[in-house]
Fold each of these.
Amino acid sequence: MEIASAEKISSLGGPSMWIEWGNLARQNKACNLGSGFPNFSLHPDLKEELHTAAENPVTCWYPRAQAHPRLAEELVATYSPLFQREILPTETIVTTGAYQGIHWTFEAFVQAGDEVIVFDPLFDAYIADSIITGAKYVSVPLMLESNSWVLDKELFANSFNSRTKMIVLNTPHNPTGKVFKRDEIELIAKLSKEYNCLVLADEVYDRFVFGGYNHIRIATLPGMWERTITLCSAGKMFGVTGWRLGWAIGAANLIEKLFRVCICDTFGTSTLMQEAIAGMLQRQRMCSPPKESYFIWVEKIFAENYSKLKKAFIDANMPAVHTQGGFFLIVDCSKRKFDFQDSSEYKSSDDHLDKKIARGIVNEFKLALLPLSLFYSPESKVRPTSYLRVCFAKSSETIDQAVEIIKTFH
Ligand SMILES: Cc1ncc(COP(=O)(O)O)c(C=O)c1O
């Protein structure tokens, strides 16, 4: 007889969308702009830091659970100016990627009966973690108006009640590329104080904000340090998602709750990676002249990639929504007619337009993109179905290959 899983596992539903769409890209050996990770090789500075770290015998040992001391020190030095306060080592904790930071925050603060406000479209881990912890997620859609995504403030304000425990704010935002504006962040802060809620500030793309936009850290607003956990990702920051390293920053009493989850979970993450990333962060902080920093280097690559791709899609009659930050470009596929849309298979499918087009593009042109409708919570009342998410955080070679493919669209 089959062993029954815990109910929370069955309520997660079928396999994650990443598996289905990842398989489709692999089966087609596609140029992959669907998955959201940088694919360029290790930056020479990081390679050097990794080699140096590997020579240090300490990096073979278990880490100190909360953070490898050198990384804790470096987080203090790097983030104190960014948060405009003297951060203490006890106000940081290292995680196995920001993914784990999200999970620990839910585990530590959320339970059955609580409500969590999320913005649709979204990074799907927030939904999975709401389900796992028995909380109810309440989704507030971001609306596309005049080529940018905006928060419906009235709808957002009406989503609060006495059960609201946490708000998940992801800025810069995956998948839309929105950078939340000051007035939106101030409203989130005001309501979180009014209803005594925690804010999970997922800021994994904080280093990737484009001209004219400012990344505002909600934890720096008055009265918000005490109620915000900010999550960062070394993987996104330095193009090493495979290293699985991130960290959470917040008031010591909040971080201490994550530590409680940490010690009954992984009890720390790779010492070697922590040492290498500490070295890399230190290099960026000390970099002189600053224009030689990794961040400037990567920003230039992403800006070039973005404009090449945007132009290619516009030429292919797939207009793009302006990206303000992060790794993604959103393109409209409703204006473009592809030959595969005449096939009987296409016509008989009752999937959303974006799914059918993304499938057609990967099967016929070997270019993997993701339908935006995948990023909406199941209950969302708003679900645009004519947009595709395109990741531009890739090597120049991958982008050039993609551009050549887009030119052949027919
Ligand atoms: C918004 C957001 N948060 C968190 C993560 C997970 O980051 P990490 O790779 O550090 O676990 C991702 C990854 O795509 C993301 O897009």
Amino acid sequence: MKVNTSRLNLMILLSASALALSACNNMSKNINNEIQNVGTSPYTNCSFDASASSEVFDTVIINGRVMDPECDFDGQRNVGIKNGEIALITAGEITGKEVIDAKDHVVAPGFINTHSHSFAPFEQRMMAHDGTTTILDTELGVSNVNIFYDKYKDNSLLNYGSGISHEEVRRVVMDGLTQEQTSDPTFATISRGLAEKKNSRNWSLSIATPNQHEEILKMYDQGMRDGAITVNSTYGYMGYSVPTYEIFDLQKMAKKYNRYFGAHTRFGTIESLPKNYSLGVREVVANAVALDGALILSHIQSQNWPESYELCRRFQEQGKDMFCEYYPSIYGTPNIATPQLLPDKIKLNNGDPTKMIIDPRTGKYFESWESFFALQKEKPAEVVFIEMRDKKWEKQWVHMKDIALANDVITTLTPEGKVLPEDTDPSEYGGHPRNARTYSYIFRMAREEGLPLMHTVYNAAYTPAKYFSKVGLFQKRGRLQPGMIADITIFHPENIADAATLKIGERGFFSKGIPYVMVGGSLVVNNGKDTLGMRPGQPIRYDVITEGEVSSELNDKKYQWHADLPGYDESRHTYPTPKPHDHEH
Ligand SMILES: [Zn+2]
């Protein structure tokens, strides 16, 4: 996809390379302030003072500082785990077959990453060391969820889930790719490449014909029936080729099934419209409001984040199912020899290797223009990091409330298109360090900013669970309460820190200060050590719907303007005439 090169506009190369009744008795004491958050799960149980028990648990976590954002609980307790669930929380003594002494450590609900495209074994291992217990793709996703869930069944370290992908569905319908080629976000770059190879980029460059539009909706409908967690769209990569009615129809689809619409909106940093506007965000927000639909705004740092954040907060205050997400990085990651960085172009694009481009050999700015051009000549495929966003924003982002934290990293593949094996040495990982250090990085920065610990625990674990609970998922996760599934992250509040850097050889370094991570009661990080080969990850998925038929009918004709007109001729409904590839400039 071509981009406007009149300014340093490299985001295209990156983001992709870049989803009651309450027993709680202290609802009013919500640390995350004015917004009501309790009552989203029928399993909410704020009882942290059970009496001691003589029962022998599978695992007990003793002496830890138990933190639960939903109940706003923060106190030293012992936790008993049985059959993969938190059975008991008490100040009394308990015993277990396995004992974890969590003295001086926080015992928190496992971190839920709402936006990742990395389901490969080594990438999951890095994320486990960063405290992650669940990875979801609510933004890119897959064309066929059965293929995705079958592939990771009993074959995933962490809990996993995906929505239906707009671009993958479009590549099936409009570029002739197969569902097998387009049903694992880990291989999204390959899927994009396959379309390129066929010289068929209709998914990104063409407006769907009325028939294709119908096919796209039918594939989504099938995906919803198959249990996809979200309706996704990365239409920020499709420029002007996605008419507003296509997005409106996808949001109606999400509403039809009462699920979230996950949006990488248009007019973000990769396009030629002003970067600091949130025009694309307004489009999906308007649809969500009209439909009373659920909405996730992906990586709001790309769409004028202060404004997008305020939109989220104001709608949250009104009780709407809407949340924002961000990932902690100011860098884009193009190849060093990408056209915009070649000697004749880089100055035109306002690039300066000594002020904004990181030398992968040192992890610091290039020493000189000469050393930059020398590396460009010598290793044109080398990935470099370019500062795309204001550095001070990183510190501001950690202050945002009730926002999901994600990494949004696409899996690093070998030149043969293979994933790194699980036992890869971390020094061999060459992808974005964010994959190894999203949560540790945010916790470290939040500490430096003096934020209360509960603030960050809330965002890391509870925000996604809270919002997904409203539509029937995550009712027993994202909470450190009796009766919840034992997805647990144990970290040291002063020592939790990132170790991965931008330097080659250090990008996969595991985060520090997170000695224990438990997925469904199984330790995937045990006293800081790996437990290679374990696959306790569970699918996050809606129940499959078998009755009824796949249909693109969105059942709300009464709202369509022509529904009021007697004898309206449907054939006069206007679609733009598709002119393939007429959007390149
Ligand atoms: Zn994106």
Amino acid sequence: MTTLVPASALSELNPLPRLLMGPGPINADPRVLRAMSAQLLGQFDPQFREYMRDTQALYRGVFETTNAQTLCIDGTARSAIETVMVSLVEPGDRVLVASFGRFGQLKAEIARRVGAEVRVIEAEWGTVFDIARIEAEIRAFSPKLLACCQGDTSTTMLQPLAELGALCRRHGVMLQVDATASLCGTPLPVDAWQIDCVTGALQKCLAGPSGIAPITLSDALCDVVMRRRHIEEGLRPADYRPGAGRIIPTNYFDLAMIIDYWSERALNHHTEATSMLYAARECARIFLQEGHAAVYARHALASRAIVSALEAMNLRVFGDQANKMPNVTGIWIPEGVSGDRVRSAMLDEFNIEIGTSFGPLHGRIWRIGAMGYNARRDAVLTTIAALETVLAGEHHRFTRGAGIDAARAIYQQG
Ligand SMILES: Cc1ncc(COP(=O)(O)O)c(C=O)c1O
């Protein structure tokens, strides 16, 4: 049989070096790419087990937690969200989702697929929840789990979380936080804020590729999951007793088996995604070497520079500014300007990617991200300069140079 392989498919991989200034993914820190090119190892190699232990310790530092079960799920961010839900929630359990954007909807969707009784409360896109509203819903619904985003990238909003964990503990509710887009861009001290589970990703503020998701889990949450522990045939130790709880209805995302795999017992599960583990380890090292406070300040500075530039360019920033994510900024697309044409010109002429959003905001806002490796002065100034040129071509009314001057002034003030 002859298979027709087009010549283009045989050409060498050589993507244009884009500057990724959208809502993520972003450009990886070159150190991460170098770490990923290290030679492969098997997951039972003593060197590799040490890298796994290092990675756990590093992410305890990132998450500011002592949680023993701090590890990585092989898959993109939603794989970690799904792993936790499918392993914790049983059909008929109540799950409350506090949704303020598309990624709140994602958690409701996953919980429904797991068979939970799901109640979704919504905050208008561009706003976040008042904690009293969440408390009233918890009282009325008595959920097993409350799930929400810290930062919902689709709306660029950041839910304040400092009080939420304590509130959930008072009511006997577990709290699952999706910090895919906010982890390492803004504070998230997991133990101090009493959060049972946080899931993250590398491709935003951690300056790495998507494909592996760091997570941290409280002992209380793990106890519930471990009651459902059923070890796969062929791996069962002599003293094996299956958990009393219902079997977790997935093999790949079975958190009990994944915990066993990461433990000193090293029970086999999947073949580790070696290069992704190297990436996760390097991302955490880079973050911790710079330090929590310095990284958060770098993201906040980039945010101030971008907002100030946009306002100087006669553009309107989207959403409640008091609760804006520092690493992503939404901008109303001005009347008479083609949002798609602007994004295409940015990409085709300047090699800069910016985003739009989803659902009701699709085509109505742009989103500019400055996060991780790209939360840098040069990346921000280059993006603003290009946007000014493109918007002038669209006959948007503003003073040429005002945006770039405003952004530079913020950086000069520091
Ligand atoms: C807040 C949030 N949650 C979940 C996801 C899903 O992540 P992934 O595409 O890595 O599965 C994203 C992706 O952008 C996100 O921003």
Amino acid sequence: MAKERQSDSKSHRVGRATLETGVVTSAYRAAVEITCNQCGRTIAEGELFSRQTRRAPLHAHIQTTAVMTTEPICATCRPLRLETTSE
Ligand SMILES: [Zn+2]
């Protein structure tokens, strides 16, 4: 199977999902318990969730043009429907 570059130790990207708003995003499956950044509840291992990408505040002394942070958002806060899987 192809190496999944967007996987990390805490989650695996499982494919594309559509949010209630119609926005297509990436769906992730938790590999360990993760805390939802919005409501603070625990996203259980194996549960689907999405991520919200936000531009992190830049510090003047750091010469980086695109510092992004991704925050886990649980499926209760942001319901998602899995469209495709990359598995
Ligand atoms: Zn939540």
